[in-house]
Amino acid sequence: MDTAHVLATDPEIGRDAYTYHGHQGRMPVVIIGGDLSDPGERRAVVAHELAHHELGHTTDHTASRFREAAMVALGAAVVAAFTASLLAGLLLAASAATAYLTGQAIHRAQELDADQVAADALDAAGMDGPGLSIAALAAAPPDPRWIRWGGWVLSGHPTLRVRMARLAR
């Protein structure tokens, strides 16, 4: 992954990071949190964010469209429940939940794909890609209990345990 990019630090986002298309959509901009001070961790996080760019996740808005559809369906469900029929409202609410969960599942899959592409890229650069990526994930704050106990299905990110196990294979 030989991607020219702009790298900036934002102390406000702690240990988080994100990427987006820069000027005219050509060069990715990677923003990392100011709490990422370990060089290996920074490499792993930047590689992960560049992997999102390489995989097209920054231009593929499928997951976002599902979540947007969920919000529209939820609004329609409320209107239908109060003006048409409760059954119509319940059906629209079920559609909203399905669309939201589908969007989150797509986003989780994108995270796992970016983890693997980042580890492979670091390996190709002569570093221990899986090791650096696992170390960066291990240094992250632990997932909240509700996420570990099944709430991950509502999240756009897989649990840290799942991500580290995937990279350890």
TrEMBL record:
<keyword id="KW-0645">Protease</keyword>
<feature type="domain" description="Peptidase M48">
    <location>
        <begin position="36"/>
        <end position="167"/>
    </location>
</feature>
<dbReference type="GO" id="GO:0008237">
    <property type="term" value="F:metallopeptidase activity"/>
</dbReference>
<keyword id="KW-0479">Metal-binding</keyword>
<protein>
    <submittedName>
        <fullName>M48 family metalloprotease</fullName>
        <ecNumber>3.4.24.-</ecNumber>
    </submittedName>
</protein>
<keyword id="KW-0472">Membrane</keyword>
<keyword id="KW-1133">Transmembrane helix</keyword>
<keyword id="KW-0378">Hydrolase</keyword>
<keyword id="KW-0812">Transmembrane</keyword>
<dbReference type="InterPro" id="IPR001915">
    <property type="entry name" value="Peptidase_M48"/>
</dbReference>
<comment type="similarity">
    <text>Belongs to the peptidase M48 family.</text>
</comment>
<feature type="transmembrane region" description="Helical">
    <location>
        <begin position="72"/>
        <end position="101"/>
    </location>
</feature>
<keyword id="KW-0482">Metalloprotease</keyword>
<keyword id="KW-0862">Zinc</keyword>
<dbReference type="Pfam" id="PF01435">
    <property type="entry name" value="Peptidase_M48"/>
</dbReference>
